[in-house]
Amino acid sequence: MELKRYERRTHYYETDKLGIVHHSNYIRWMEEARVDFLKQIGLSYIDMEERNVSSPLVSSACQYKKAVHFDDVISIGIRVTQYNSVKIMFHYDMINQRTGEICCTGMTEHCFTTGEGRPLILKKAHPQVDAAFREWLEDQENPR
Amino acid sequence: MELKRYERRTHYYETDKLGIVHHSNYIRWMEEARVDFLKQIGLSYIDMEERNVSSPLVSSACQYKKAVHFDDVISIGIRVTQYNSVKIMFHYDMINQRTGEICCTGMTEHCFTTGEGRPLILKKAHPQVDAAFREWLEDQENPR
Amino acid sequence: MELKRYERRTHYYETDKLGIVHHSNYIRWMEEARVDFLKQIGLSYIDMEERNVSSPLVSSACQYKKAVHFDDVISIGIRVTQYNSVKIMFHYDMINQRTGEICCTGMTEHCFTTGEGRPLILKKAHPQVDAAFREWLEDQENPR
Amino acid sequence: MELKRYERRTHYYETDKLGIVHHSNYIRWMEEARVDFLKQIGLSYIDMEERNVSSPLVSSACQYKKAVHFDDVISIGIRVTQYNSVKIMFHYDMINQRTGEICCTGMTEHCFTTGEGRPLILKKAHPQVDAAFREWLEDQENPR
Q1: How many other C-beta atoms can be found within 10 angstroms of the C-beta atom of residue D118?
Q2: Distance between CA A80 and CA A3 in Å, rounded?
Q3: Of B39, D14, A8, B1, which Cα lies nearest the Cα of C16?
Q4: Using a CB-CB distance cutoff of 8 angstroms, which residues of chain A are in contact with residue B19?
Q5: How does DSSP classify residue C98?
Q6: Bridge partners of A59?
Q7: A93/A34 Cα distance (integer angstroms)
Q8: What's the longest Cα–Cα distance across chain A?
Q9: What is the pLDDT along chain B (144 residues), one digit of tens a residue?
Q10: DSSP tag of A136
């Protein structure tokens, strides 16, 4: 199974007075790409919520490499770089389709909780979800 | 009782590539002013939620009179212009403190529902909240 | 020529603590739809900027009919309802693809200025742009 | 000279469907605190722009420690942790006034360019700005 990169055109309201897209939007695009990724591997946010699984953000980081402009189309790739049934880490690369250049890389780290905020060990609580993440992590390490 | 106008400095991330504050922020400032107003008349959003009263937006309108710039301070006045225990209408005027000019006027119209979305008649369901709105509406019509 | 409606999936970060999409996003989606519309009729924002034509918002209005949820796809139709070479008015209707219902209608009214903010009469300053808008307005009144 | 921490109440539109403030707002609050800090040390964004100095973000990182709720007041401290006339790094700590707990820590790293994007060495181009940052960095290392 091969993932499709997430594509996303920038909006006028995302620009700032420097004339470029404001940096605070990138972490929102990462969320959009993550939602799309989870859907592609069969674990939509809405399914997760029905299972009462929440995945709050623990930390994030972002490297801003090239300014992005209004109406540029950004293609975002996402990989699971760590997973151990208590935490998951995603890595993102963003390519500006107009220039072909990487404009941003980033990562987000999440834990798992119930909707009420109690910590979850996925392996015990939701073995199928755990298996899906593990399989995808293995796919990363041993690309077919 | 006299209300204090709500004051609010504009942020860099609220500007757009025209170099001015993007128009989509005004409706957010109206919400900030409304939250502040409700607190001042003793009906905070959080109190309302504890009473399981929600006040979803039915309609809004906005007249954009003067561009607003980064780091300007906007002073927002708010009045209850209609209230009948099923709907409430607020009117807003925004003055740019830097220029002394009105930069925007607007209105929002809200109905009342339970948190689950069932319509509420405030007079029956929450007579105290109803009285507070009525009193404030009367204050508008017959300023002391 | 027939316009394609603008389609747009809602994002997680657009929701609020009521569990629905926050109303302040609708005016942003109207902008997205307008940008797309202008592109479709051959007048992209970027072309307009190269001609040094700006179209600041004068007023807006919005009727919120049905709550919209995370991951819903909204289809937005847009029409030119008034145009006189000094001002233009757009009307928007938004249909939630999940339910088939109209969730929101709205309008925005714009004037025309140079990038520096001086008023423009499009008929004189940019007859081609003027003709494009007029043609599109006529298309609305006399649909072929 | 002692800096005042930046205080900021959270807004309803900053919450998400989990019922807490969406993580994407923290990087915006860091910008607000930075703007306030620069003003306090006599280097407002607007002064910087008049000197044609821009300070684009190079990287950022954020650790999300505790969820923040609607209407909480967040107090943000900011320190210059590195500066060498080509780059500057700020560190942020955010305390939720309601709970007294640190809810978030973060950092941002910026370079200096002209408004047109050409790299700047502040020591050469703007010795006074350079001196201000150096002094403040020294203040950090040798608190009086």
Answers
A1: 11
A2: 12
A3: D14
A4: 17
A5: T
A6: A109, D63
A7: 12
A8: 50
A9: 688 999 999 999 999 999 999 999 999 999 999 999 999 998 887 888 888 999 999 999 999 999 999 999 999 999 999 999 999 999 999 999 999 999 999 999 999 999 888 999 999 999 999 998 998 886 555 544
A10: H
Say if CB B104 and CB B62 are below 8 A apart: yes
Residues 6 or more apart whose CB falls under 8 angstroms from that of B47 comprise none
> Would you call B119 exposed, middle or buried from its count of C-beta atoms within 10 A (0-12, 13-18, 19+)?
exposed
Nearby residues of A49 by Cβ (< 8 Å), 6 or more positions away: A115
Alpha helices for chain C (secondary structure H): 26-40, 45-50, 122-125, 127-141
B17 and A13 within 8 Å at the Cβ level: the answer is no
Whether residue B69 lies within 8 A of chain D, CB to CB, comes out as: no
Main-chain phi, psi angles of A43, to 5 degrees: -130, 70
Supply A130's token pair. Answer: 């755990």
DSSP state of A4: P
This model of the complex carries an ipTM of 0.92
Supply φ then ψ for residue B16, to 5 degrees: -130, 180
**pTM listed for this prediction:** 0.94
SS3 content of chain C, % helix, strand, coil (to 5): 30, 35, 35
Active site residues of A: 16
Question: For residue A47, which amino acid is it?
Answer: D
For C113, the enclosing helix (H) or strand (E) is strand C113-114
Q: Cα–Cα distance between A32 and A90 in angstroms, integer?
A: 13
Calpha distance B14→A14 (Å, rounded): 9
Contact pairs from chain B to chain D, CB under 8 Å: 32
Residues in chain A within 8 Å Cβ distance of C32: 11-12
Q: What is the pLDDT of residues D88-135, one digit of tens each?
A: 999 999 999 999 999 999 999 999 999 888 999 999 999 999 998 998
Q: How confident is the model at residue C144 (pLDDT cuts 50, 70, 90)?
A: very low
Burial bucket for residue C4 (CB in 10 Å: 0-12, 13-18, 19+):
exposed
N residues, chain B: 144
Look-up: residue for tokens 């987000």? A108
The whole-angstrom separation of Cα A8 and Cα A21 is 13
Check CB contact of B131 with chain C, cutoff 8 Å. no
Cross-strand bridge partners of residue C21: C15
CB D14: neighbour CB atoms within 10 A? 22
The token pair that represents A141 in the structure block: 């390490």
What gap in Å lies between CA A104 and CA A95, rounded to an integer? 7
Give the residues across from C62 on adjacent strands.
Answer: B60, C106
Q: Which helix (H) or strand (E) holds D137?
A: helix D127-141
Half-sphere exposure of residue B15, counting CA atoms within 13 Å on the CB side?
A: 21
Instruction: Name the DSSP letter for residue D79.
Output: E
DSSP single-letter state for residue C25:
G
Which segments of chain B are extended strands (E)?
6-9, 53-54, 57-64, 73-83, 87-96, 101-111, 113-114
Contact by Cβ (8 Å): A110, A80: no
What is the spatial distance between Cα D88 and Cα B10, in angstroms, rounded to a whole number?
24
Q: Is the CB of C35 inside 8 Å of chain A's CB atoms?
A: yes
